[in-house]
């Protein structure tokens, strides 16, 4: 009987579902799988919320042996794992987070040199466990139905989604869920780009009551990783246990997120919020006028030697196979 | 200008530390960091004004502020240590100054030596990051492509320079402590 | 050795090293390095951990504005704005022993409305208030103690970074938390004032106030002169408050706006020469460097403790002790106060809340009330040795020529930590103090 000591840590705290299920689903599932034969036992050291690794430093923490298991996230590590934030370069996609994740993971697995290149460059093994945030929309202090409604209005958001505002006349200001509430309340900006299962728990409807469905789409943020040095010491059985647990993690994450999604939209209405539908014709104009969001993303991925266009095309085609077509084919231009 | 007395001069090094070319180098680094603080103030205010009055926030201010604070701190760290501004407790040291001045210098020499070796270790382990960031700027930047990006290698270079300078300053302090202890034993 | 044993050993060695006079940041870095090396049995991981913290511990917008808050404080001091303000306060409070202490507390309460971090309050008032109090005959110990003690108001009264962090961790409304902090924050300020009066009466040697009554200024200022002396500070505070609550900038950005405002006022008042401006900037740099290097050390140390499993062990020990809900809250607060002696505020919240919140939520505890209790308990740690960041900031801002020792600052701050304990008990016994305004 072998005991392996592993450190699992994240930059986000446990209130985020992708951290909660690491602790509540992934780790117990690995333990349960391994207990079936009982040959290997894992002694976990857990540290969430930046107590061991700061958000954005995950890649280096993996590489330097500080953490063994954790999240591989393109949004929070754009320089090293930018390949994994491909959906942010393809806004106005589907709202179905599970479907987006499946399409991304299939694109990563099927595209020659995608995952292998990422693992080679970062020394972190992607073991699955992909997850996506529910449909991004805009909360604001006044209803937004047309592009004209957005002209000159300031919205808080983070780098990868502020670019989506280009061409609308809206002004993007950098912020995060730590700053949104206070900054909207005092008027530094008049709303935020976000997702409803984060906006409602943060009670942002108290300051920005209108939830405007512009439907940027669900966004894949990454999956689970194990440091290559550690992974190479695992037996096939242990590797299989990790992959099985990663699947359980994805599934538990989406089960809870979907329940939360419905509950959050309901609670939004009950706590003074209003859901507003952004006019579809206006949305189409917005999409048509948007400077091509894939350009900079592909340039950055190409510079790293990653198969940028091939991955995006595979993602687009995987979605098409499930019946979703982007209003604008960013890749045909 | 009687009010200036409120601010004690602290850019002059304590008398027992010998000055020389090294002192001039860290003095220059300190001056750059000092000017950078003004730059930081101007940057944030420009962003506030641009955002509030002409609807034009400055892209990448968050990254630039982050970049700046790290740069400023490490550019000035060696000079901060030299000027005696790095925080420590004086309880035992003051007691020793009266009772056993020679022991005090020996304790100080030991602590400064540890500080120097510890930072030398950090510098040694830090150096590969600079090399990697220089060779692969496409994997070592702050920000997001298409929005704002800034390469990390200049920052890593400044931090490494600051760590090395602080390590040297610690070792120089240890050296002068040893001398002072010897002088007292004669 | 188990992780928990390594953690406790490191605390013992920390006490020894810090009191022997090792630079605090170096002691923390050394212990983190040694601790991780022992915990993981790997030299490379331990040293890589240092490298990563040197890269990311202070790489944050919130630390980026530290030099600007320091700069604002120094400019206010060097331009004589602080002195003018305190001269007026000295005249108004001249019959009261400890009057300038009360003025400092009141000024801090006002300043709390424009800052979300206590480091800013401590840095600003060390330069503005301490020299003036000492000039008016207060003991150094009391002068620095008042400043360190009242700096906690910066995070108890809104806006407050700690309440925001608590709100994010527990999914409570930041707005409600801010409002919940108002009565306890005001109460703390009042208790400080009463405490200062009491100390002035029963412990005058600590305050150093007695001689004030005899060394009264001969010349009385008229109302117009007083207004003239107060005008610059009123303009500055109005500028920053108006900027924040008018939606022009965030409390974090207020440091930059305030520093620029102070610079302009100093130039208009012709109180700033190029030489003195350069000196101000150099000292700003040294203070910032010193504080931020400490934060690197503190961040490393908390990462090492998180790896050791000690905070989790303490937390589960409390939770599994079979205590009732009241017992658990009391034990949680005690753990927080104990951790406060060695850790920084944010780390304590991040380490304890995820363990405590699920249990307390199941027991129907009012999480807004708990938030106020947590923030007060965490902030007591700003003042307690061996690691008290407010005290370190005061020390760093005093500069190397200051004769006031770290220990004197801790001693001066101790009565204020005691009064915070009193407010903690009051809010615990009377939850409406936190919930009445919501
Ligand atoms: Na405040
Ligand atoms: Na403390």
From TrEMBL, chain B:
One of its GO terms (molecular function) is transmembrane transporter activity. It comes from the Bacteria. The chain crosses the membrane at residues 25-46, 58-78, 105-127, 153-176. GO terms for cellular component: plasma membrane. It is a multi-pass membrane protein. Keywords: Cell inner membrane, Cell membrane, Membrane, Transmembrane, Transmembrane helix, Transport. It is found in: Cell inner membrane. The keyword Transmembrane applies. It holds the Pfam family DctQ. InterPro entries: DctQ (IPR055348), TRAP_DctQ (IPR007387). One of its GO terms (biological process) is C4-dicarboxylate transport. The complex comprises the extracytoplasmic solute receptor protein and the two transmembrane proteins. Belongs to the TRAP transporter small permease family. This is TRAP transporter small permease protein. It comes from Oryzicola mucosus. The lineage of its organism: Bacteria, Pseudomonadati, Pseudomonadota, Alphaproteobacteria, Hyphomicrobiales.
From TrEMBL, chain C:
This is TRAP transporter large permease protein. GO terms for molecular function: transmembrane transporter activity. The keyword Ion transport does not apply. Pfam families: DctM. Part of the tripartite ATP-independent periplasmic (TRAP) transport system. It is a multi-pass membrane protein. Belongs to the TRAP transporter large permease family. It is found in: Cell inner membrane. The chain crosses the membrane at residues 6-39, 60-82, 102-130, 142-169, 175-200, 230-248, 284-302, 322-355, 367-393, 413-434. One of its GO terms (cellular component) is plasma membrane. The lineage of its organism: Bacteria, Pseudomonadati, Pseudomonadota, Alphaproteobacteria, Hyphomicrobiales. Residues 11-433 form the TRAP C4-dicarboxylate transport system permease DctM subunit domain. It comes from Oryzicola mucosus. Keywords: Cell inner membrane, Cell membrane, Membrane, Transmembrane, Transmembrane helix, Transport. The complex comprises the extracytoplasmic solute receptor protein and the two transmembrane proteins. The keyword Electron transport does not apply. It comes from the Bacteria.
């Amino acid at each position: 009987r072998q005991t392996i000591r592993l450190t699992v840590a994240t930059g986000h705290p446990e209130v985020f579902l992708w951290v909660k299920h690491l602790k509540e689903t992934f780790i117990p599932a690995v333990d349960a799988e391994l207990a079936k034969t009982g040959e290997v036992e894992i002694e976990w050291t857990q540290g969430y919320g930046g107590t061991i690794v700061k958000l954005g430093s995950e890649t280096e923490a993996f590489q330097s042996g500080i953490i063994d298991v954790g999240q591989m996230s393109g949004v929070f590590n754009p320089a090293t794992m930018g390949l994994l934030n491909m959906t942010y370069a393809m806004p106005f996609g589907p709202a179905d987070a599970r479907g987006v994740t499946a399409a991304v993971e299939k694109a990563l697995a099927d595209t020659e040199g995608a995952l292998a290149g990422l693992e080679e460059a970062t020394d972190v093994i992607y073991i699955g466990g992909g997850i996506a945030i529910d449909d991004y929309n805009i909360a604001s202090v006044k209803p937004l139905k047309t592009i004209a409604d957005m002209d000159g209005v300031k919205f808080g958001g983070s780098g990868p989604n502020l670019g989506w505002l280009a061409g609308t006349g809206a002004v993007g200001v950098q912020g995060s869920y730590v700053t949104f509430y206070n900054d909207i309340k005092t008027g530094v900006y008049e709303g935020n780009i976000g997702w409803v299962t984060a906006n409602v728990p943060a009670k942002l409807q108290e300051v920005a009551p209108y939830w405007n469905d512009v439907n940027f789409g669900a966004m894949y943020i990454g999956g689970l990783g194990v440091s290559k040095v550690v992974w190479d010491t695992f037996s096939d059985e242990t590797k299989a246990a990790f992959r099985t647990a990663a699947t359980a993690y994805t599934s538990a994450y989406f089960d809870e997120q979907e329940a939360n999604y419905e509950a959050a939209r309901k609670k939004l209405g009950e706590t003074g919020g209003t859901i507003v539908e952004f006019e579809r014709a206006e949305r189409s104009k917005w999409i048509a006028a948007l400077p091509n969001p894939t350009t900079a993303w592909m340039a950055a991925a190409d510079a790293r030697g990653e198969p940028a266009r091939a991955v995006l095309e595979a993602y687009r085609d995987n979605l098409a196979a499930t019946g979703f077509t982007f209003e604008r084919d960013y890749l045909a231009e | 200008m009687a009010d200036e007395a409120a601010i004690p001069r602290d850019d002059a090094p304590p008398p027992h530390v010998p000055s020389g070319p090294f002192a001039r180098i860290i003095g220059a680094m300190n001056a750059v960091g000092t000017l950078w603080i003004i730059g930081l103030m101007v940057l944030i205010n420009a962003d506030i004004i641009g955002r509030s009055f002409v609807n034009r926030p400055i892209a990448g201010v968050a990254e630039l502020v982050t970049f700046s604070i790290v740069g400023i701190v490490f550019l000035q760290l060696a000079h901060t240590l030299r000027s005696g501004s790095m925080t420590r407790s004086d309880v035992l040291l003051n007691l020793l100054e009266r009772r056993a001045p020679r022991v005090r210098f020996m304790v100080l020499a030991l602590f400064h030596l540890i500080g120097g070796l510890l930072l030398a270790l950090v510098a040694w382990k830090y150096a590969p990051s600079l090399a990697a960031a220089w060779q692969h700027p496409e994997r070592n930047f702050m920000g997001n492509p298409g929005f704002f990006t800034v390469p990390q290698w200049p920052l890593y270079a400044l931090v490494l320079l600051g760590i090395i300078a602080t390590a040297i300053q610690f070792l120089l302090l240890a050296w002068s402590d040893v001398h002072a202890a010897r002088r007292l034993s004669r | 050795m188990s992780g928990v044993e390594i953690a406790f050993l490191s605390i013992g060695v920390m006490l020894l090293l810090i009191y022997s006079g090792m630079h605090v940041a170096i002691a923390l870095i050394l212990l983190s390095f040694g601790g991780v090396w022992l915990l993981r049995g790997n030299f490379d991981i331990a040293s890589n951990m240092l490298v990563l913290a040197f890269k990311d511990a202070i790489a944050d917008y919130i630390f980026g504005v530290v030099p600007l808050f320091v700069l604002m404080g120094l400019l206010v001091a060097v331009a004589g704005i602080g002195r003018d303000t305190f001269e007026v306060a000295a005249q108004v409070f001249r019959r009261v022993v400890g009057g300038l202490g009360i003025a400092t507390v009141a000024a801090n309460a006002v300043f709390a409305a424009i800052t979300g971090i206590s480091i800013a309050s401590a840095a600003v008032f060390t330069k503005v208030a301490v020299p003036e109090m000492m000039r008016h005959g207060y003991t150094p110990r009391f002068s620095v103690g008042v400043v360190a003690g009242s700096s906690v108001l910066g995070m108890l009264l809104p806006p407050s970074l700690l309440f925001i962090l608590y709100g994010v961790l527990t999914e409570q409304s930041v707005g409600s938390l801010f409002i919940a902090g108002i009565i306890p924050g005001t109460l703390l300020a009042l208790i400080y004032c009463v405490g200062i009066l009491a100390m002035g009466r029963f412990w005058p040697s600590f305050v150093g106030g007695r001689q004030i009554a005899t060394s009264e200024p001969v010349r009385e200022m008229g109302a117009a002169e007083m207004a003239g002396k107060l005008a610059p500070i009123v303009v500055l505070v109005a500028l920053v408050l108006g900027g924040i609550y008018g939606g022009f900038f965030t409390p974090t950005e207020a440091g930059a706006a305030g520093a620029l405002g102070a610079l302009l006022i100093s130039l208009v008042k012709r109180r700033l020469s190029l030489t003195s401006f350069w000196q101000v900037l150099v000292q700003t740099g040294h203070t910032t460097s010193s504080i931020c290097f400490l934060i690197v050390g503190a961040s490393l140390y908390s990462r090492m403790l998180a790896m050791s499993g000690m905070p989790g062990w303490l937390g589960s020990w409390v939770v599994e002790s079979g205590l009732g809900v009241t017992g658990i809250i009391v034990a949680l607060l005690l753990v927080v106060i104990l951790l406060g002696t060695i850790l920084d505020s944010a780390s304590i919240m991040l380490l304890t809340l995820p363990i405590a919140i699920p249990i307390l939520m199941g027991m129907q505890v009012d999480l807004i009330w708990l938030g106020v209790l947590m923030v007060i308990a965490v902030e007591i740690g700003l003042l307690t040795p061996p690691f008290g960041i407010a005290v370190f900031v005061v020390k760093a801002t005093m500069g190397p020529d200051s004769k006031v020792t770290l220990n004197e600052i801790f001693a001066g701050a101790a009565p204020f930590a005691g009064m915070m304990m009193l407010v903690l008990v009051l809010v615990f016994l009377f939850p409406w103090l936190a919930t009445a305004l919501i």
